[in-house]
Amino acid sequence: xxxxxxxxxxxxxxxxxxxxxxxxxxxxxxxxxxxxxxxxxxxxxxxxxxxxxxxxxxxxxxxxxxxxxxxxxxxxxxxxxxxxxxxxxxxxxxxxxxxxxxxxxxxxxxxxxxxxxxxxxxxxxxxxxxxxxxxxxxxxxxxxxxxxxxxxxxxxxxxxxxxxxxxxxxxxxxxxxxxxxxxxxxxxxxxxxxxxxxxxxxxxxxxxxxxxxxxxxxxxxxxxxxxxxxxxxxxxxxxxxxxxxxxxxxxxxxxxxxxxxxxxxxxxxxxxxxxxxxxxxxxxxxxxxxxxxxx
Amino acid sequence: xxxxxxxxxxxxxxxxxxxxxxxxxxxxxxxxxxxxxxxxxxxxxxxxxxxxxxxxxxxxxxxxxxxxxxxxxxxxxxxxxxxxxxxxxxxxxxxxxxxxxxxxxxxxxxxxxxxxxxxxxxxxxxxxxxxxxxxxxxxxxxxxxxxxxxxxxxxxxxxxxxxxxxxxxxxxxxxxxxxxxxxxxxxxxxxxxxxxxxxxxxxxxxxxxxxxxxxxxxxxxxxxxxxxxxxxxxxxxxxxxxxxxxxxxxxxxxxxxxxxxxxxxxxxxxxxxxxxxxxxxxxxxxxxxxxxxxxxxxxxxxxxxxxxxxxxxxxxxxxxxxxxxxx
Lengths: 295, 327
Prior knowledge:
The complex is a heterodimer. The longest helix of chain A is centred in the C-terminal third of the chain and has 24 residues, at about 245-265. In chain A, strand 4 (about 125-130) and strand 5 form a beta hairpin. By secondary structure, chain A is α/β, with parallel strands linked by helices. Chain A has two domains: about 5-35 and about 75-295, von Willebrand factor, type A domain (Rossmann fold); about 40-75, no CATH class. In chain A, strands 5-4-3-6-7-10 form a six-stranded mixed sheet, with helices on both faces. In chain A, strands 1-2 form a two-stranded antiparallel ribbon. Chain A is built from ten helices and ten strands. Chain B is α/β, with parallel strands linked by helices. Chain B has three domains: about 1-25 and about 45-75 and about 305-325, no CATH class; about 80-160 and about 280-290; about 165-275, Rossmann fold (3-Layer(aba) Sandwich), CATH 3.40.50. In chain B, about 30% of the residues lie in helices and about 25% in strands. Chain B has helices spanning about 15-20, 55-70, 90-100, 115-120, 175-180, 260-275, 305-325; strands at about 20-25, 30, 40, 45-50, 80-85, 105-110, 130-135, 150-155, 165-170, 190-195, 200-205, 220, 235, 240-245, 250, 285-290. The interface between A and B is medium-sized, with 29 and 18 residues. Strand 8 (about 230) of chain A pairs parallel with strand 2 (about 30) of chain B, so a sheet runs across the interface.
């Protein structure tokens, strides 16, 4: 199947559709399924819910009770996956080449795919959306219902306001002692920020933290339109102008900033994947997941 | 040349441009990485809407008025016109107007000598279809006037006004002199006096010896050149010696009083021509056909007074509005 381009994200708001396409393009073997088989020990029956795999339906019980029941395994995985979405105002930055595509929708797609993968692997997964100075949680759980909850939450996220402050974030992101896999999608434009501090702290708490830094092509190349005036969506006051004369300075400042970011993350042993939102989400996803595999 | 000032009309665009509203560029697009750019001053944009429309209109009018004042526009507004020389016989004028079908035409009373020149100067003010009739005792111009439209001239020679001149004859041959003056025809009439008065214009001194110093007149005719000392170095024209003295101008000739009618006529004509204004010759009635020759000088400033007042008024209004706007 052809690689799904990021234009698909711009064209549809149906996350499930995008996930299906992206994961189909991803091929076999990414979600290595180390945990598969560990949950074969029967625990209980549960009523069928849409999204459950047909092979988990107990057909004998269907014949007896005329109802669909799903065999629930004891515990599929010990790993909880946390999806961290930065939905501050700067995440609304659009791609200047693909209409309708912005960083938030791209991040949403990536996290939804991770969630779907986690669900297929039987991992518990939860979502934390950092937006408008607040943290919105979908507590970690398993199963297709959880995926629906997470997708619904992701679908309604709007990019607005600032990140929550450091204290709120510290008290919110208090995970249980179990080891977690934390996927954070952000643009890392603020450094240091409450989110960066939280990521470093989580890493110190022995969680596996993987961040993806979302950028646009125009940002990387300094190819903004010089016509309109610009303002910073997260900071007040001031109008900015872009032009060929300012490009050098812009690229220098930007490179300096992201050098600092990568150096700091490397020092804290936080995995960082770089992504341009114009790239195919499958590629980014593969790169993001593989990073952890190499560890 | 004045009409070249109309080329300055595009200056009206200046206030139109200046009155465009300025607006700070507020429709800035969000740019997440704007923090890597240096801050710039917000740009001022002019939008196609105008501030202080009344003031803008007044300023445009002020400029237009100033340009019009400089360009000195002429509008063809005169229709059929009858130019009547002042002092013409009213009945004859009415008759002529009726006969020529100018009943509804405007009438312009002008001095007779200026009538044709006036038409030449003002001919741009006449509408293309306007007809022109000139009535009265119009003197014959030295050269044929040329107009860019046909002009009908109807003249009626007025009886010449009679002028009286007082002449004192001091002579042994007074009878001969009287006879000569009596033969004078034309509008000039001679009143003979026995003694010179303050209104005496000519003294005929046909007597040997100098006249008493108290006698004064503008002109003396003397048959004795020795009687007037100023004639000693005088010049002579046509047998007449002449000089200016304390008593007045002196003409002297030994051949006086003239013995034949030709000499008498010559003397009287000379006197009349040199001392009395020429009687104008009334032009014959005629129609001037149109030519393409423009008048050497057109009348200007027809609207200047009006435009000047408008300019002053508009300037005052503009100042008031500007002041009111600042407060």
